[in-house]
Amino acid sequence: MRRLPLLALMLICPGLALAEPVFYPAVSGNATAPTLIVYSSLDEPLAQPMIRGFQAANPDVAVSYEDMLTGEIYDRIVRETDAGKPTADFAFSSAMDLQVKLSNDGYAQPSNLPMSGLWPKWANWRNTAYALTFEPAVFVYHKPSFVNEQPPSSRAEFVDYLKRKGDAVHGRIGTYDIERSGVGFLFMARDQEQFGDIWSVIGAMGAAGVKLYSTSSAILERVSDGRFVLGYNILGSYAADWAKRNPQVGIVLPKDYTVVMSRIGLVPQAAANPELGRRYLSFFMSKEGQTVMARELQIPAVSPEVTGENTANTMQALLGAQLRPVPVSPGLMVYLDQVKRARLIARWNEVLRTQ
Fold first, then answer.
1. Separation between Cα atoms, residue 161 and residue 151, nearest integer Å
2. 280: exposed, middle or buried (Cβ count in 10 Å: 0-12, 13-18, 19+)
3. More confident residue, 183 or 119
């Protein structure tokens, strides 16, 4: 693989100079092979096993992979499409609301694939936007801090723990800053829908001096070294990756309910080569692709064909109705309503500040 020269990119796409695609030549060695263009919020190093798997099955296809923020993916697809220019062949993003909005507003095209009919109904919006991962929001904890007691396993237990421990845990709790973290806002919005007493949880965290961060790694790093004892609503795939490398990090799927989010893949309406985009999406949905994702990327698979530890099949068999997947539907766009968003954030800040 190689990075495209930054100067060349600046000449081709003025105003997008900070984007630096990573180029994977066709494994066949064909220098004139067609190039699949991917816009993705998944860090490029993490995506490599999936790209290699796709190229092994498609040796005459090169890949240009652009790792960018979720908002940038949405903005760029809209901007390029509205300007009458080609855009990515495939878009993969954890911003479920923005991906569904692209689909709903005509910026994505249907992809009728072999797996479309078998895909879970909650994970498929009109064969246009597909949930490709199954990622719970979890509690994380510092194992050495819980030698003498069990970590909280529900929101009620979480609140009870904070109240009992008082000063001993003050300033040692972390969660997402919902103003800066899209996934943090999504989890909080779902909490408000699923749990009538959610503001008691937020209030208890405020009283415990909760620290807010925009990234999972910032919280997990602090739980790992013991600066934090607990993290609330942390994206499970990142937590699992940290726990694998740091045995002092523990994970709990809250037993009252566990919100599950997904990364959504789609083929943009103005894709430069939609056939390649659909081929990549088809690989993502295949048994082989979903297995690579579960085993090598450590991101739980959605496919009903895939079994094993890191899959929706296994989680649902073990936990059943405890899991609450976020459906891929226009209902997600409620979170983009600026008035409702501002109202939720204002109450969040007020509860934290009051405490």
1. 8
2. buried
3. 119
State the pLDDT confidence band at 237, using cuts at 50, 70 and 90.
Answer: confident
Res 19: pLDDT: 52
Rounded to an integer, the average pLDDT of 244-273 is 96
217 is written with which tokens?
């790694």
- Strand bridging mode 230-235 / 258-261: unpaired
Backbone angles phi, psi at 249, to 5 degrees: -95, 125
Q: Which parts of the chain fold into alpha helices (H)?
A: 6-12, 44-57, 70-82, 96-104, 155-165, 182-194, 198-207, 216-224, 236-245, 274-285, 287-295, 312-319, 338-354
Phi first, then psi: what are they for 58, rounded to 5°? -135, 70
Calpha distance 294→311 (Å, rounded):
7
In three state form, how does the secondary structure of 150-204 look?
Answer: CCCCCHHHHHHHHHHHHHHHCCCEEEECCCCCHHHHHHHHHHHHHCCCHHHHHHH
Helix and strand numbers, DSSP H then E, in the chain:
13, 16
Considering only CA atoms, which of 113, 123, 77, 82 is closest in space to residue 332?
123
**φ/ψ bin of 226: left (φ > 0), alpha (ψ from -120 to 50), beta (otherwise):** left
The model's pTM: 0.85
Supply 94's token pair: 């954890």
pLDDT tens per residue across span 180-236? 888 899 999 999 999 989 999 999 999 999 999 988 999 999 999 999 999 999 999
Q: Answer whether 251's CB lies under 8 Å from 240's CB.
A: yes
pLDDT digits (tens, 9 = 90+) for 52-81: 999 999 999 999 999 998 889 999 999 999
> Contact 184/344 with Cβ under 8 angstroms?
no
